[in-house]
TrEMBL record:
InterPro entries: Alkaline_phosphatase_core_sf, DUF1501, TAT_signal. This is DUF1501 domain-containing protein. It comes from the Bacteria. SUPFAM superfamilies: Alkaline phosphatase-like. Signal peptide: none annotated. Pfam families: DUF1501.
Length: 489
């Protein structure tokens, strides 16, 4: 698929000369999930018809805060509310007159002219896994047969998968990646909503797994890791350049153990040579694999060995390394990068909320996100890169204490209101869209749904409102289920 819409009546994808079958072919994921098969032919067809991309952004960095960021402790503080609602933190002024955010996000406050807020995103789900599906796919309603415990191919496709399908590959790179880890529950089950769902596994985003799983340690290791319930299990994880795996169907999807990157690539090239004898891989697919052996790609992924200045600005921890990796992948030409700042439920501050946010979560996030904004601004890439920061839901207005598990209070799950940060890609900095009531419980002005959130990303990336993805039976499924959020640009 390209950025130029689908017309179900004409049987063509946007314009004469580009058939729906051709559009389906460009959506087919090739080696390494790169989506480059037949791309040259489709681009030539579009060029012949004078079609040009829409949208302001070439790339999007979707920063996901699994667990749910408390709006009262971050971007929608209620200092006039009763003590059991307003919490311990105090608002602080930003560079934008009249705009205040949490006192523990000082670096972002200094850069408020670069970002905007939507304070009125709302849905009705208060359970983690279901809410992940809602926000990661941009659909308020759960699909028939949905199970929070088991991802299914009847689930809806993630925003990352849709964006990967619906945008053109650049430099033979993946159109969509997720890093530094997939979201895994402490029990070991995969959280639903991260993959291509009913689009099929061939459209799954490319997973860059640089952060090993730990069942009880959360946050920006090694500097800021913590345990929500202080269970005392050691965390000796290493953040390292990932092994690159061929997609499902080539027998390489799940490789156990940590091999050196170059050795892994060498092995995969050997595997590819064997498969080439029995499968007719086209030139673009082979070229994509070759690209993965080039030093420029290695440099983008090997962030722990970055220069000292970059490491100091982003932070020597998994949050900083992840956003530095995303920043480099933008420059390399990846269209959508989803960055999970912490594994499943890292931001789930039921208890010990105020010390964990103040000491462990806000410092690395404030530093790394500010460095990302500065870097993209300095090179002019911020205008062409949409940055969004969201979780699966917000937190309850009332502060609670679960004495069985925590020594200090926190807040429960709350789908009815959350604050979302936007920057770059045509976003007007210092801007606030929407408003919640006096307790930060429900939208009081301009309620925004997950469908609007997803549409904002798609629209910024130049995907037209008429666009659709095609299933195995060549049936179109509309990508947009809402309008982009009004007032952000």
């Amino acid at each position: 698929m390209s950025r130029n819409g689908c017309s179900g009546k004409s049987g063509h994808w946007g314009h004469e000369g580009v058939s729906r079958r051709q559009a389906l072919q460009v959506g087919a994921i090739g080696i390494l999930g790169l989506g480059t098969n037949h791309l040259t032919g489709l681009r030539e067809a579009y060029a012949a018809n004078g079609v040009t991309p829409h949208g302001k952004a070439k790339s999007c960095i979707f920063i996901f805060l699994s667990g749910g960021l408390a709006q009262h402790e971050s971007f929608d503080m209620k200092p006039e509310a009763p003590e059991n609602i307003r919490g311990e933190f105090r608002p602080a002024a930003t560079k934008t007159p009249g705009l205040q955010i949490c006192e523990h996000l000082p670096m972002l406050a200094e850069r408020s002219n670069s970002w905007a807020l939507c304070r009125s995103l709302t849905h009705n789900i208060n359970e983690h896994s279901a809410a992940h599906h809602v926000m990661l796919t941009g659909h308020s309603e759960l699909p028939t047969g949905f199970s929070p415990n088991t991802p299914s191919r009847t689930d809806r496709a993630s925003i990352a998968a849709i964006a990967g399908y619906a945008t053109q590959a650049r430099n033979n790179l993946p159109t969509s990646v997720v890093l530094p880890e997939r979201l895994v529950h402490s029990s070991g089950r995969i959280v639903p909503g991260q993959h291509a769902g009913n689009m099929g596994s061939q459209h799954d985003p490319w997973m860059i797994e640089a952060s090993p799983f730990h069942s009880t340690s959360y946050g920006a290791f090694p500097e800021y890791h913590f345990d929500h319930q202080d269970r005392g299990k050691p965390d000796d994880r290493l953040f390292e350049a990932p092994q690159l795996s061929l997609p499902e169907g080539l027998g390489m999807r799940d490789i156990n153990g940590r091999l050196a990157l170059l050795e892994t690539l060498k092995h995969q090239r050997q595997q590819l040579a064997q498969y080439e004898k029995v499968a007719n891989f086209d030139r673009l697919r082979q070229g994509a694999v070759s690209l993965m052996t080039q030093s420029s790609v290695h440099e983008a992924l090997n962030v722990t060995q970055a220069d000292e200045k970059s490491l100091e600005r982003y932070g020597r921890n998994s949050f900083g390394w992840s956003l530095l990796m995303a920043r480099r992948l933008v420059t390399a030409g990846v269209n959508l990068i989803q960055v999970n700042l912490g594994n499943d439920e890292t931001w789930d501050t039921h208890g010990n909320a105020f010390p964990h946010l103040k000491n462990n979560l806000f410092p690395p996030t404030d530093r790394a996100l500010s460095a990302l904004l500065d870097d993209l601004q300095s090179t002019g890439e911020l205008d062409e890169t949409l940055i969004v920061v969201a979780g699966e839901f917000g937190r309850t207005p009332q502060i609670t204490l679960l004495e069985k598990h925590y020594k200090q209070p926190g807040r429960d799950h709350w789908g009815a209101a959350q604050s979302v940060l936007f920057a770059g890609g045509g976003i007007k900095g210092g801007n606030v869209v929407g408003k919640t009531d006096a307790h930060g419980a429900y939208p009081a002005e301009q309620p925004v749904k997950p469908e609007n959130f997803a549409a904002t990303i798609y629209n910024a990336l130049g995907i037209p409102a008429t666009a659709a993805w095609l299933d195995a039976q060549d049936r179109p499924h509309h990508i947009y289920d809402g309008e982009p959020i009004a007032g952000l640009s």
